[in-house]
Amino acid sequence: MPAKIEKELNTLIKNFIWNSQLPSLSMRTLNSPTSEGGRNVLNIQARNEAIHLMKLKKILDRSPDRPPAADAAEAIIICSLPKHTRDQEAHDPRIIDIFTQQIFNKHRYVSKTLPHEIKAILNTGAKYNLALDDVNLPLNIRLDLPAWYHIGTEEHVKSRENTPAAKCLRNTHNCQRTGNLLILANILDNPQHRRWNKSCSCPPCTNFKMASCKNPETCYQLANHMISNLKPQYNPCTAPIRCPPPSGDERAIIKSHSLNGPSSIKVIKTFPNPKDHASVLRIHNSQITSASFRKRITNPLPLRLTPPKKLSTDTVAYTDGSCTGNGETDAKAGFGVWIAPECPDNASLPVDRIFPQTNNSAEVLAINHAITTTPLRARLHIKTDSRWCVNALTVNLEKAEDQDYISTPQPLAIKNTISSLRMRNGIVSIEWIKGHNGCAGNENANELATLGSAKTPDNGSVTPTSCQGTPA
Ligand SMILES: [Zn+2]
Ligand SMILES: [Zn+2]
Asked: Between 3.30.2290.10, 3.90.230.10, 3.40.50.2300, 3.30.420.10, what CATH number should domain 248-453 receive?
């Protein structure tokens, strides 16, 4: 809808409500729901933006139901890109999915060649922070990201995207995705390949030379350079391996740890992997995406890409949160984790100030702490007296992820916990137990949580949470 019409409709609504008199309530108040003291009056701008976002969703759709108009819109967007970013041919092999490429990463779209409607759709997406984000991008998505104009590329790598080796990577080696680059980079470690030797006759070099690559080594080196310079959250070499669903034997072991009967115990699902990168392109209601959030509080460590060996150990952790003055401005929250008497992993910590000082955030962060301090391959069985936490991490999780945690309480604490879970190879189960009911583990965790809330978070000795866990 053109801005002019939007404005005229708003004036009509205002005149109708106030009978052309001076308004005594702001439009913002009138637009609010009646439960919040408003009058539920249609907010035309918000509705138009919602329509734009639904259209954007269609353009991003990669499923078989993708409407043909989405292809047309995308082709128009590509044609509007500045000439220097495209090869002169009709089809530039670098541009394969503009929404996941740096070339598209803008805050505002002003191109005169873009039709008004498409421009409005793109600008609404930018306004609401459309970004490729997931709590730990899994390996399949990282391998599938476009190799060129990669969103995780550092500035100095971009300058090499037009070298002869880069052109050879595109035209001779058909490198379109990060996975293609990784395969080429791995040839450098092939024992048959002779490094820096133009006359190397290893099978890959022979094949590539036959396909008109003049110097395969420089192509492998560039591929390796491009991969090694990807930011850790996009780099396939540092991708976490998500935990597979439990086997029959494991199910029996998990059930054996239940305190209230087998049906009360739930496995926290960190699987399946998102299907494709279109499914992790999301609108973010806040500027804090899980990737930027992780960057702030952790230093990612490279993890092995080999599958985990047989799972061996089991840990049962009782977790609890505590908050003095819950709901007040001077509230102080802390959490406790109790595993066994004198266990060095028992913890009593305050909630870091970047999280809300509430009982619920403390309950989630207690679970996160248990997850990050238990060896990655061990099975972990969490016992909590917070039903809210159990639901937030199990039955409500999928919906929360789909909605990017818009209506989820404690989104940062939950995202961080899910991130920690997705670094694990060992299964995590969770069970609700009644608090203050004589269960020694729960009483101990409760005591540690109370002690934790009395501590000061900014004494430098406390890491709020870590997304990386402890290598097994
Ligand atoms: Zn070779
Ligand atoms: Zn080459």
From this structure: 3.30.420.10
